[in-house]
Task: structure prediction
Amino acid sequence: MTRRLAVVLSVAAGILLLWGVGRAFVKSEDGTAPEGPAGVVLAPPPDALVEDAGTLGAAEAARWLADLASKNPARPRVALTLSRDGLRVVLVLDREAGTIEERRAGRSGTRVASVWKGSLEARLAAARESGTFDGPGLAPPEEKNLYH
Result:
């Protein structure tokens, strides 16, 4: 009898544990980004010319950054802060490094980035026309986790 009780309690504990892990996973995937401090702060470089764009989609943000860059050709770095799908996004054009970087927080709070390297003028022209920094003959962006 005690062995049967131990098996029943072990199975119940296992089911409870699986339910708790599953619930935590679902909350992290469907919830919003945590409000607490993050290990990686989403902020533009301190020396960048920054504009706050409010809430924009990806295409509108790409066009806005292209316009900001063309209005300020002497600035080595220009940046755009915005909200997309309820998440904070920072777009940075770095002429010295030859990159365009989009830093964003995932729904779970993980900070990630897409980095387009080289061909800045072609990428800005593509952004003005199609709303993306990708174009024919241009390398795709590199995706990276900002914690690594």
About this structure: The mean pLDDT is 81. Residues 2-30 form the longest helix (29 residues).
